[in-house]
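Standup notes
- DV: blocked on the single-chain target, sequence here:
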Amino acid sequence: MRKVDILVIGGSAAGLVAAMTAKSSHPDQDVMMIRKEDKVMVPCGIPYIFGVLGNSEDNIMPDAGLNQLGVEILVDSVTEVDKDNKQCKTEKGETIQYKKLIFATGSQPIVPGWLKGSDLENVFTIPKNKEYLDAFLEKAKVFNNIVVVGAGFIGVETSDELNKTGKNITLVEIQPRILGLAFDEEIAFDAEEKLKSRGVNVVTGVGLKEVQGEGKVKSVELSDGKIMEADAVILSMGYRPNVELAKATGLQINEKGFIVVDEYMRTSEPDIFAAGDCASKRCFATGKLSTTMLASTACAEARVAGLNLYSLSTFRSFKGTIGIYSTSIGDSSYGVAGLTEENASKEGFHIVTGSFAGIDRHPGKLPGMHKQIVKLIVSKDSGRIIGGEVIGGSSVGELINVIGFAIQGGMTFMDLLVSQIGTQPVLTASPAAYPLIKAAEVVLKKMNN
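- DV (later): unblocked, structure below
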């Protein structure tokens, strides 16, 4: 039997950060990570192996940080957790005793049980599994017509990347717009038009009825009766938390299928924590159970778990999922943080919105200039920022993070109006027309009317 102080099950984003944080915070403790794969994929980089990267080897999370800290990596799979005796058994026959345990078992792609033909050859999902994706990449070389089902971030990015390789890509989405669950209509419309202009066939408002073929994919039938020829089908219809081991261990699972955790990432069992896609979420704004799964959220939760293993601190707690997303289609990028206007209204918030369209350089004749649109969603009674959306160039990813910080910090639109910023002609918008602050000015005008 092997003995460790801290054991982490899972090696993707949450597992990596949990192990590193645990070892950094408790350097005198032995930390072991158990993961199934020898090489772990960068989760958010997976769509790009189908296009700009061209292979999975350039999308590997390095082990250097773990190695430098002294975290032991065991490539194996945990088959059983005995919570009473604090022991784990693995597929390769190891028995490991722990003092503290962190579940970071992630999530798995959803394949609907009702979908006829989902077991045909050349029906794929997008898991975080290198061997599976390598086999997919090899097969994809001979495909001409590929149907991608589901226009969330992974479906959109995978479609755009495959399109770069000269294949005929059709993206099917049952919602009225691509990315429609993440963005308000005008932002989603802009993204959809951009994707279409790049050559991706986009079909919205229609679902997938069945995959057809004998032995392997030949075509798909949509819910409106239309039949489309297909060499392959990619199901990007969401992910479900991987909690089978947690269930067998006796951990409490909530109604959404996630491991129940508190704000310190503690589960229902003493000395067992959970973080990442497998752990329960609550919306930062409403406190309602959420199903948001993001690598960035997973890393935040993992840090909280690693910091609170031996003693709790109110400064080291997780207050809820803001939901900060960004994506890029060609030279245009799109970001969202917190509640959209539509969702805020549905939740019952009295809101004021402010949008401003500008550019991200000054003067606008500088090379690389891109339009920049910022939309703020503000609570009318308090002035607090509860959401924001951005369209722009390569700076969108960081700008939407700034809005996320504002939401988490409880900032108001007035705080933005008096914020000091640093600007530079080739890096930012003009200080006199900075879209983030100008959007706050629009909110002020509406508040005063």
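- Follow-up: The radius of gyration is 23 Å.
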